[in-house]
Amino acid sequence: MFPKATLERLKLYHRLLSEEKEEYISSEEIGGRLGIPPEQVRKDLSYLEYKGKPKVGYHVKSLLDELNRLFGLDKKVKVIIVGAGNLGTALTNYPGFSNYNIEIVGIFDKDPAKIGKKVGDLVVLPMEYLERVIKRFNVEIGAICVPKESAQEVANLLVENGIKAIWNFAPALISVPEYVIVRNEDITLGLLSLKHMLEVKNTQSKQG
Ligand SMILES: NC(=O)c1ccc[n+]([C@@H]2O[C@H](COP(=O)([O-])OP(=O)(O)OC[C@H]3O[C@@H](n4cnc5c(N)ncnc54)[C@H](O)[C@@H]3O)[C@@H](O)[C@H]2O)c1
User: Fold this and answer.
1) d(Cα 195, Cα 201) in Å, to the nearest integer?
2) Which residues of the chain have pLDDT under 50?
């Protein structure tokens, strides 16, 4: 098990390495580009099986292969979206997921006015098709992009139909069986912490 902060930084290293053209990279270069001390980079990477070479650095492909395995990116993961509103359509249209072997295979809504509309290459499906799509594509992740009042109802449907992991964008806590993994994505909380950091910085510069 990695410490949570290490895991978050490993994601940053992964993104940087995915775009790296050179064969080898040093901890100084990684740290310099990400604003992370090189000692920290070395410590984080020491959790991995692959070890860099002294004076040469890390072989980019070997490091990337291990990080891909670690994040399960070496195998494709299928996702469905429930809620074809602002957020659901934005996620479905986002091209960046394919870089991570993530494929959105279905988008669903209960509103008859949305059903049948095209979103990217997909057509918005009615909720009755949930089971069929999950089974047909072996979908593991379901994203909840409905208003908070409907979040639990949608979570129940996803679980009943075999979804093992839920990416919840609704600002509501959902209850699911223990075997189901939930990730709550609250963009507002991120913004609040940024606001707090900004206030601290402004106060410090006034005092200094
Ligand atoms: N829009 C954003 O940038 C944003 C950012 C962060 C979080 N969120 C959260 O994400 C969720 C969606 O936001 P939005 O802006 O896309 O809302 P939206 O109103 O544009 O879309 C919600 C969609 O969910 C559908 N829906 C409602 N109940 C449903 C149900 N029981 N089954 C299936 N479909 C159902 C509606 O018909 C609608 O199409 C909200 O909970 C919101 O708080 C949105």
Assistant:
1) 10
2) none
Token code pair at residue 167:
């990416």
Are 35 and 96 in the same domain?
no
User: Of how many residues is the chain composed?
Assistant: 208
DSSP 177: -
ipTM exceeds 0.90, yes or no:
yes
Number of structural domains the chain divides into: 2
pLDDT of 55:
87
- Rounded to whole angstroms, the Cα distance separating 28 from 26 reads 5
Instruction: Determine the distance separating the centroid of ligand 1 and the alpha carbon of 124, expressed in angstroms.
Output: 14
Amino acid, single-letter form, for residue 58: Y
139 in any annotated domain:
yes
Q: pTM score, two decimals?
A: 0.80
Helix 4-18 / helix 38-45 crossing angle, nearest 10 deg? 100
- Are 119 and 135 found together in one domain? yes
Q: Is 85 annotated as a binding residue?
A: yes
Select from 81, 82, 86, 160 the residue to mutate for testing ligand 1; criterion: most ligand atoms less than 8 Å from CB. 86
Cα 87 to middle of ligand 1, angstroms: 7
Residue 195 belongs to a domain: no
